[in-house]
Each structure stands twice: as structure tokens, then as C-alpha cells.
Amino acid sequence: LTTANHPDVFMEAYVKNRASPLFFIVYLFVTLYFFSSVLLAVVYAHFNELEKKKFRKLFLHKREALRLAFYVLGNDGEGVNFHDFMLFMFEYKPRIPEYHVMCIFKALQKDPAPQESLCLEEFYNFYEMQNLQWKKVKGDGENYYWYDNFSEKIKPFFAFMHRVTRFKYFNSIMAFIVLCNALYLILFALITSYACGTDGADTDKDLDDKYCDKDRFKATHKAISGSFIFTGIYIIEITIRILADGPADYFRKWWNRFDSVVILLSFILLCFEAGAGSVNSLTYLIVFRPVKLIRLLRLKRRYYDIMNTVFFLSHRLFSVLLLLVVIFYFYAIIGMEIFQGKVFVGCCDKALFDVGSNYESNASHPSAHVYWLNNFDNIYQSYVILYEEMIVNNWFVQMEGFVSETNVGSRLFFFAFWVTTVICLSVIIAYIVDAFVFRIQASQKKKKCSIHPDMFECRCREYRKKRVEIILRGSEINQLKYEITLLEETRRRHKIRGFSLNFMIRTHKRIDFDLIPSNEIWFTGKRLRTREDLNLEMHRNELKDWIYDREQHRRELQENPEKEKSLKHILWVKTKEVFFFLLE
User: Fold this and answer.
1) The pTM is what?
2) Among positive and negative, which fits the CA dihedral 193, 196, 200, 205?
3) Which among 38, 52, 3, 34 has a CA at the least distance from the CA of 546?
4) Roughly how many angstroms between the first and final C-alpha of the chain, as a whole number?
5) Are 297 and 303 within 8 A, CB to CB?
């Protein structure tokens, strides 16, 4: 089934009967290709069902939490006013600036006209709006630039940098430079390989001083000047983008941060490589030079989506990988108790399939027969052999070695471990497939809305969570200024003079509305779509049923409070009865 010893396993039968491979072919097709795929499909379907139940439970719990918070803040359901909402936000997010609170308060209101309070239905959308990043924009929707308040003498320079980055062929030119860098590295490696005699060159020819000095890495070291040129171009590009967008906006995007770290790392490694000279210990730095080619992922949107999916998966896969480590630890402890000291040099001469020859050698022939290193003598070696068993390459060699030194029951240990890891790896694959399906569906939704922007699901606010536009009018600005003054007065009255990082950050992000002559200020809130947004869209037809069932259950509990008590305590009461019965 694992094909680790295929086709060796049926060669003896093949000699006696030429039709015998048909049995193994059918067996592999049924077990490896069919039932393994069915297992993955079952795991994925069960995974989707669990994800749906988890989302339903989380959605209803969030809704219930908002309902309780509303009745605490809203004076028993009369509505949440801005003052109470701002105090609530300062407890929820201590560093959030005051105008962000007003923007969220305004975005939650269904009526665009100014309102004094939020109703319960509006407050239910809090989790959808609370992560929006708000930015002041012009009345026509155009963004303010970070250099708008600069001197008129230097403002044209930054405006020119902005026009350069917005040039429609700018990204294509940089992609072409990255491709040239890749070709440069490939061609130089091929020329060096040929000159050093590895590709049919005349090795008797005196090329040592000119190309490689009998060391291919040193030859590649001479290509450092070209790498410095390309790295310098990348640094200039990053500098232009920072001058155009501003440091804050540029480094807010994860891809820009990642790109900057890659280029900075490449430049540092090139400097080390240039200063290494004849120091052979630093020649390994050459292998890091192609790291810059990661920028090729910017060539196509699909590659960019793949990188987004990888980052999206990183925190989700951590829990699954942690589970895999725990499984390894569980089997490693059992293996150390059962098999410790059982495998050594020269053992396993009675093992089946003539695997004992793999345990005969010692340090005199370390490359051929050193399977005695695969043992359970300590936790580290236990992890190594379990990893080899999970990969299933020559896994039967280790298993038969331990079986020859113990008994046939040892096979159960290795079979159980293999089945456990197959199920765990199927869960990991389900995570990956589910993440890519999520990305594909989100991209299709975005493409559909770009083609048909007038569709209800594209115009409705519940679907436009990535971008929300609001207008703060004069009365709302005055109310915000009054709340800020009230907070400052309260701080002075209570003589709060200690250092507060949250207050300092909030004050730093504060907007001075007195310097804005207009009575109306436009703000745009943006955030990335999350999996929860897609789940809301996919299960929108079921949300009403979930809400109705929860409200019906809550009414039943209000009419009969003893019902919840009996449901909660029945298992506990039975457990205590069993416990005291066993004590007797």
C-alpha cells in the first residue's frame, strides 16, 4: 500500500506467473488511488461540516454577546449613545483614536442622517466594522497624500515620485528587471560550470586564474558586481515607493514589508560575500543570492494570491502541526519503553526480506548499512525514526528490524502510527484545500462585482465591508470635539498624570478638526476580507433560521427557567451518582 518496496514485493511471484502483477496492480488502484482519495474526501467533508458548526456557534455567540452588551450600554434597550459607545471602545481598543470611534459609530447607522444612538439591529454589525482602518479623503473620493502639507518647494518632487509609481508600465519594467536578474544568475552559473570542467570543458586548459581558481563557488563570487547592480536598482525602487506613498502607508502592507526585508537581507549578504575574499567559511552565502527572485511572485495576480494563502494558512496550520508533534511524542515515549536498546550494530540477522544486511556496517562503511542509527534510545532518535516511518520510504526495513529483535506484535505499533499520521496529514491537506477554495470563491466574488457593480450583493453595505465611505457633518464633528474636551477635563480633574502608552498613541493619532475649514469631512474605512465575511455570504440564507432557532430557544428558557437548569445539571448529577456508587 505504501509502495515503499514496489515492485520488489511481487517480483518473485512475477517469475513464477507472468499474470501475477495484475493482482498487485488492481490492489494498488483500489487501495492507494481509490480508497485513499475516498478517505481524503471524507475527511474534507467532515472538516467542512465541523467548520460550518463552528461558524454557526461563533456567529450566535457573538450575536448574544452584542445583545447583552447593548442592554448594558443602552439603558435596558433604549439605544447606545456616542458617549457610552466611545467609553466602550476605549475599553475594547485602548489605542483607538477618537475619530475612528466616531467613524465606526457612523458606519453602524443604517440611516445616513445624523442619529443620537444605535439600535440593537445596528449594534449587531459591530464586529463587521470594528477592524476597519479609517482614512480622511477628499470630497471626490480621492485620497489625501502624505506630502500635502509639505513646503511648496519640495511638494512637486514627491508628486513626481507618486506619478512615477502610478505609471502603468512601472511594475512591468521592474518585473522585467527581476527576470533579467534571474537570467544573469542562470547564465553565469552555466558559464562557470562549463569553465570549471563539469560540463565537458577541457579540464587541462588553464582557466584557473580567469574563472574558478579550482573552486566553483569562488568563480560565482566574481559575479557579485552584477548582483550589486540589481540590488541597487531594487533599493532605488523601494525608496521611490516610500517617497511616493509615505513610510506609514508603504509599510502597512505585508507584501511591502516582506519585499523590503528580502532586499535588505540580500544587500547585507552581498556585503558579507564581498568582504569574504578568500575566506572559504563565507562562500555559502552565495546560495542566498537567488532570494531576490521571490519578487517574481509580483508578476501575476495568481502568484500573489498564493502568497496570501500561504500567510493565511500559517496560523491555522500551526495548531495542526502542534498536534502532529504531540502524536510523535506519544509514540516516541511508547517506542522508548518497548524498543530501547533493541537495535545495535550487527543485529537483526534473522529479519525477513534480508533487511539484516542494513544493520551490519559500522563507521568503516557509513554510507551503506547504518540503519542501526534508527532506534528509540532517546527522544531525538525516536523523532527521527518516526519521521522516516511517516515518509514510508524503506519503512519496512526499520519495522522488520525491531520485529526480529522482539516479536511480531511490534508491527501493530508501526501500523497504528502510520494510520494516525495518514489521518493527520489528511486533515492538513483539508486545511490547505479549504484555504485555496476560500481564496478562489473570494476572487470570483470580487470579479463578479467588478463586472456587475449594480448587483444587490455588491451594492449592499453588508457586502461592501472592504470599503465603507461615510461623511462626518458639522453636528457630529462638534459632538466629537466636545467628547474629546470632556475626556481631557476628566483626566485633569482626577489628576491622571502617570505615563500611559495607550493615551499617548491615541493622542498622536488624533485629528485637529479646528484646522479643517470644511463642515463636512469624508472618511473611507478599509480592511481585508476575512473568512468570516465569506462564510456570511455563503450561509446568508441559513442565518435567519439560525437566529430564529436561537430566539425561540431563548424565549422557551425565559418561560421555563428550570429547563436550562435540568439540561445543564442532569449529566453532573448522574456523574456524582456513579462516583459515589463506586466509592461504596
Assistant:
1) 0.63
2) positive
3) 52
4) 52
5) yes
